[in-house]
Amino acid sequence: MSLIKIENRCNQSCVFCSFEPERQRGKIEVTSIFDDIKRSKEKLVQISGGEPFLAKPAVLLEILLCCLKNKKKVEIQTNASLIEGYDAGALKKIARIVKASGGYFNVNISAANPKLDRKITQRDFFYRKISGVNLLLKLEVAVRITHIICELNYRYLPSFARFVKEKMGPRVGWVQFSFVKAMGKARTRKIVPKYSSVSGFLSKACYILERSGVEFEIDHIPPCMLGRYYGYHVDIAKMKLKIPGPQEREKTYVKKCFKCKYANICYGPRKDYLKIHKVF
Ligand code: SF4
After folding, report:
1. Ligand 1 centre and the CA of 197: distance in Å?
2. Which contiguous run of DSSP H or E holds residue 131?
């Protein structure tokens, strides 16, 4: 996959943001984005930011059309807070392009209520984001919900699963539970919990989604921490199909991995996690 950052600015200030502050300076040139898309050998192009919907509709449309012309599958990574107020005509076109590419919207929702959402994002956009997701679902485009697991929200994972079941249900394409990366603002134990603390809450959340027919997958927390849900880890397919990617350089084996029954389907814990917690 190719990650294309089209916008340096973001309208949230998430406690776990991995976008390095020093990289947020400077303007992104649209012509260089076109070059990156054309040059990319990957099928999947992730349109990211900052928040991509801060870009003008005409600019976003041009970038997406460039993806389509170059036969890319498009993933738009967004917090969905600007979807509702976005130019309606442009939004319909954007949804059509994403659909035609075989792609999807990847929406980061990391809380099931406004209070926790405010604590995590430092903004009051919870209801706007949920409306944004519902609008995308109305446009019949595939939506993945990404839930970043961090110190502030891991105890509420089962509540989040119930929230998805009740408010979005199987209309949502799938949920990805993604353990926080210890990068950017998140290089601290205040944000990165221990795998072992998260494990039980995550299993309960998986159980709720499994029972309600909502698809889900898991990333950045090793299979040995997932109980009977280890098979939902996204690295298994990557390893089996030998798909190259950042997982190969971001994760590493530790001593106990060499005796582990999952070693053939796992790249090991993240290196940035080990820097924070030393062991797991
Ligand atoms: S290989 Fe290591 S990190 Fe992966 S599941 Fe086994 S012990 Fe856990």
Report:
1. 16
2. helix 126-138
* Nearest atom within ligand 1 for CA of residue 254: 2
Please tell me the distance between residue 52's alpha carbon and the centre of ligand 1 in angstroms: 35
Q: How many CB atoms lie within 10 A of CB 77?
A: 20
Amino acid at 103: G
Tokens 């990574």 found at: 77
Is the bond preceding 50 in cis, omega lying within 30 degrees of 0?
yes
Closest alpha carbon to 269 in 210, 205, 225: 225
Any atom of ligand 1 within 6 Å of the Cβ of 222? yes
Whole-prediction pTM value?
A: 0.94
List, in order of start, the domains of the chain with CATH numbers: 2-250 (3.20.20.70)
Collapsing DSSP to helix, strand or coil, 121 comes out as helix
Summarize pLDDT for 207-230 with one digit per residue, the tens.
Answer: 999 999 999 999 999 999 999 999
Instruction: Say how far apart CA 121 and CA 13 lie, in whole Å.
Output: 5
Cβ–Cβ < 8 Å for 10, 51: yes
- Phi/psi at 181 (5° precision): -85, 135
Ligand 1 and 236: CB distance under 6 A: no
Residues contacting 59, CB < 8 A, separation 6+? 6, 30
Instruction: Tell the residue nearest (CA) to atom 3 of ligand 1.
Output: 268
Q: What is the pLDDT of residues 104-121, one digit of tens each?
A: 999 999 999 999 999 999
What number does the ligand 1 atom closest to the CA of 223 have?
Answer: 5
Atom 8 (ligand 1) nearest CA: 224
